[in-house]
């Protein structure tokens, strides 16, 4: 079974631009969660999608948004990029998002200059 | 003060040594404790999880929870160079709420051949 796939692996953007990251979950997994990982900080939860609906949301500004498609693939968008948005963005899928472990992709490394 | 504290390391030990990795936490509501391993340029992968107090063993790995001290540990016996990675602890109040997990920043472990 293929794992969680995230594209692209690396991105370099300029302040003020916007960016879209993509995540393909494990086949059959309906929950997709997004996390931000920065040095010295634990993973910070951004949001979770289940059956095309945002089910849970973390404490991030509205510049961070996402969506999920009918095939469970998910995209995350960050608008008006700031230097502080530079981070590794991880996507995780699970069958239902609750009583099952998270399976992570290898992340998208975003650098904002 | 962070809800979950984890020494970032790096922790460098010789091959074959017993490794002890630890996290402390402040929220007494946490009942669900997990350890993830993250290799360089990879996403985290679940190693072990425990619910409430006690020990859990899986091969060379033992997870220990001391709720009275708000302290969790991961022990690795007969450490191998392939164990070199960053180890993340994560914890939450319930098993059915992945989105509520609080993550440690990770400890970088280096096993010297």
Which key phrases capture this entry?
heterodimer, A: 113 residues, mainly beta, 7-stranded mixed β-sheet, 4-stranded antiparallel β-sheet, 11 strands, 50% strand, globular, B: 113 residues, 6-stranded mixed β-sheet, 5-stranded antiparallel β-sheet, 0% helix
Describe the structure.
With 113 residues, chain A is an all-beta fold. Helices cover 0% and strands 50% of the residues of chain A. Chain A contains no helices and 11 strands. In chain A, strands 2, 4, 5, 6, 9, 10 and 11 form a 7-stranded mixed beta sheet that branches. Chain A is globular. Chain A starts with a strand and ends with a strand. Chain B has 113 residues and is mainly beta. Chain B has no helices and 11 strands. In chain B, strands 2, 4, 5, 9, 10 and 11 form a 6-stranded mixed beta sheet that branches. Chain B is globular. The model of chain B has no long low-confidence stretch (mean pLDDT 94). Chains A and B meet through strand 5, strand 9 and strand 10 of A and strand 5 and strand 10 of B.
Structure summarized in a few sentences:
Chain A is mainly beta and 113 residues long.
Which structural category fits the helices and strands of chain B? mainly beta
Distance from N terminus to C terminus of chain B (CA atoms, Å) equals 37 Å
By secondary-structure content and strand pairing, the structural class of chain A works out as mainly beta
Q: Please mark out the parts of chain A with pLDDT under 50 across 5 or more consecutive residues, or reply none.
A: none
- Average pLDDT of chain A, rounded to a whole number, is 94
What is the radius of gyration of chain B computed over CA atoms, rounded to a whole number of angstroms? 13 Å
**How many beta-strand elements of chain B?**
11
**Total of helices of chain B:** 0
**pLDDT < 50 runs, ≥5 residues of chain B:** none
Query: What is the first-to-last residue Cα distance of chain A?
Result: 37 Å
* Estimated radius of gyration of chain A: 13 Å
Largest interface: A-B, 26 and 25 residues
* Overall 3D shape of chain B: globular
Mean pLDDT of chain B: 94
SSE sequence of chain A, one letter per element: EEEEEEEEEEE
Largest sheet of chain A: 7 strands, mixed
Helix content of chain A: under 10%
* Strand fraction of chain A: over 45%
Taken from the alpha-carbon principal axes, the silhouette of chain A is globular
